[in-house]
Input
Amino acid sequence: MAKNESQPVPLDVKYMTICDSTAQMIEKARADGVTLDHDRAAAMKACPIGADSACCKHCGMGPCRLSSKDPYAKVGVCGATIDTIMSRNFARMVATGTAAHSDHGLVLLKLFRQVALGRVPDYQIKDELKLQELAERLGIETEGRETADIALDLADELEKTFIQTEGEIPLLRLAPEKTLDTWRKLGVAPRGAMREVMELLLRTHIGVDQDYKNITRQSSRTALADGWGGSMVATELSDILFGTPYPVQIEVDMGVLDEKQVNVLVHGHEPALLEAMMVACADPHLIAMAREAGASGINLVGMCCSGLEVLGRHGLPHAGNFNSTEAVLVTGAVDAMAVDVQCIKQGMAQVSECYGTRFITTNERCHIEGAEHVPFDDHHPRDCADAIIVKAVNRFRDRKGPVVIPKNRHRGVAGFSYESINYMLGGTFRGSYAPLNDNIINGRIRGVAGVVGCNNPRVRHDWVHVELVRELIRNDVLVLQTGCSQIALMKNGLTTPEAAHFAGPGLREVCEAVGMPPVLGLGACVDNSRILIAASEMVRVGGLGNSIADLPVAGAAPEWMSEKAVAIGQYFVASGVYTVFGVTFPIVQNTKFQRHLFEELEDEGMGKWGFAREPDEMARMIIEHIDKKRKALGLDRSRERLLVDMADRRALESAA
Output
């Protein structure tokens, strides 16, 4: 077991998390002599120079450490200034994050093509309407053609997103024209993800690009290849293959585990594995095997972004977000944890060993020392899915330690998408974002904020997400959510229509009229592209400016922790959205690079970055930005609501 030797006096769990289930499991782990990520974070001090991105180790002459207190007092061995060093470090985070989402999109594209060719019978195209609509928007002929032929043409077109070396990636055509014009003017319209990532990494090499503004320009170009490329391809094709999400009521938290069943958790980011697992768990042969082992059935549960993918499509229960992935193993109830890629902590292997859980990796890109590996082949997905369930059943039969499952179960509504919001606001025959725009114009809704992203054990788990969103909806700001943030809000009752009573009077009125929550969950972190599509539609409908940069919108990642988050943040900034990060920001204050990201990008027609640690400060910054955009649009004064009497109606009729 991993002992708590590094921290003789553990912190009180109330300062670590507001999730009662996670708190219970931290306490149990401590009693069992097992160290979880929360305690590892408390025992591990962050390097202050690294946290400010004031060091460079990109060549053999370093590492070079500059002072964040006096950043211009010295330069690196090669002469690199603090601004060059910080912009290179920032760029490498953007490149890695973009690579993660681009690989995700490329995997889905490969599967999509094979399904269209009829070579993967376990999957089918489920949303033919979305396939046709996307194909038409990209100029592909659909009239009178077979679905498979349309799909293959779409696959060929979307492949340019990754391998094209000149021109513009296809999905940029979905952006507002003025936003696209800004990208072209600044030279940041991406050509292809592989080209942009490769060039960005080249520029950060010793002795290549040494102008922080020029490096940042390529960072924007690369990040846009993520948001309007790899991420958007992944989301659109996942919807076409597995079904576009529509609102569904679900249950979250560790109480969804069942001591009497074989509990199988799937954690990661690629939806194909969990889709196959759902089919396998319903197989009568495997259910009979579980019952022969003494279980009442097989309980499949999602975790993190894999879980969020199917949570909105199928209503699958969800056990928790990133900072609960080790804690849930402490229950002793998890018979198998299967993972694919991204956000997988290596510490889970040790914790699984302590509690007898079968910890299984499935993706060639992610092997973990101490884990079993069962390769997932999307041509034969059941081979992997069935093997995982068999291992889980055997572990159930051999359970040794006590099972302690927190009783917490919370209901929420998830599964919002561009299509479902369009329908929700306007109905089948007149679906439109016009009611959203109208209510922003008339002042009932102040603006829209995307509150997204990870958990980070450097801050109190879930607390910043919850407090920030409470403050935003209290001030009539409609909130869109993706990733781990969504689970934090579900556990705290903010994703049901009844949560409208937490909202300000204007937003509450709209939510009650439509029957929707004040917080709309849009899926996994890769599904941030849904927010870009929604923003583009708000521009297209009219009345709120001509580009995304004109809209009264903002974004926040209150507990970010990964390089993917930096890539996401930069593609939102490059798209025109004010984006606020919490926890930390890899930058030295009062430097030229800091001013460039936090001020000058907005002057170029993009968005800008913001940073704050406390949720009330984040909310203030976001609301002030939304109000600034409202004022620029002439919406700083709400329209008076007029009651029309019969005399007024007669006057209108006679005038007509």
Residues 395 and 404 are 16 Å apart (CA to CA). The mean pLDDT is 93. The first helix runs from residue 20 to 32.
